[in-house]
Specification:
Blueprint (H helix, E strand, L loop, with lengths): L2 H4 L4 E4 L5 E6 L5 H10 L2 H8 L8 H8 L6 E7 L5 E9 L5 E8 L8 H15 L4 E7 L3 H9 L3 E4 L6 E7 L2
Parallel strand pairs: 5-6
Antiparallel strand pairs: 1-2, 2-3, 3-4, 4-5, 6-8, 7-8
């Protein structure tokens, strides 16, 4: 197999603010890039993403994001035009390939510039390509920015039975 067949497909995606980001599936070699990226995500956003406080992600926490099968689980990394990682998005499908859970993180200096908006579109497209019926995310009820963004992108909020601190948002794909 040639190197071209192994290279991750890079997409140029415009953000809501008009900036263009490069997005591609992660590879195991991206672990150090993701570790550095998550160090640049605000403490609050890291807590919202992992639903617990982490100052620095360990190999064990990063492995599920970089050691993916690119079918049931897909992980995307987004870069600015200088090559710095500005976002990460994860899609983890259930065994029936009916529902995919999603998660998005954006580094603090790129918040509010449409990176999360663009990555939600990437995740929805990946879900549709896999034939998923829906994608969903679990959010801390205090994560107002993510909840509002997901609602703008067509997600419907639902209470999480047994946990008043969380909200589940879902988007039907078909």
């Amino acid at each position: 197999m040639s190197a071209d067949n192994n290279a991750p497909q890079v997409q140029q995606i415009p953000t809501r603010s008009g900036k263009v980001i490069s997005v591609r599936p992660v590879t195991p070699e991206d672990e150090a890039l993701l570790a550095e990226f998550f160090d640049r995500v605000s403490d609050e956003d890291r807590r919202f993403r992992f639903l617990t406080a982490h100052k620095h992600l360990t190999h064990e926490q990063l492995a599920p994001m970089v050691e993916v099968d690119h079918k049931g689980t897909e992980s995307f990394i987004a870069f600015d035009d200088a090559g710095a990682v500005v976002g990460h998005a994860l899609l983890a499908c259930d065994a029936a390939m009916d529902t995919g859970e999603i998660a998005v993180s954006v580094c603090k200096n790129w918040r509010g510039q449409g990176v999360g908006w663009a990555l939600l579109d990437v995740l929805a497209a990946a879900g549709r390509e896999r034939g998923l019926r829906r994608v969903m995310s679990l959010e801390d009820r205090e994560n107002h920015a993510a909840i509002e963004l997901e609602r703008e992108k067509g997600f419907t909020p639902h209470a999480v039975e047994g946990d008043a601190t969380l909200i589940m948002l879902e988007k039907l794909l078909r």
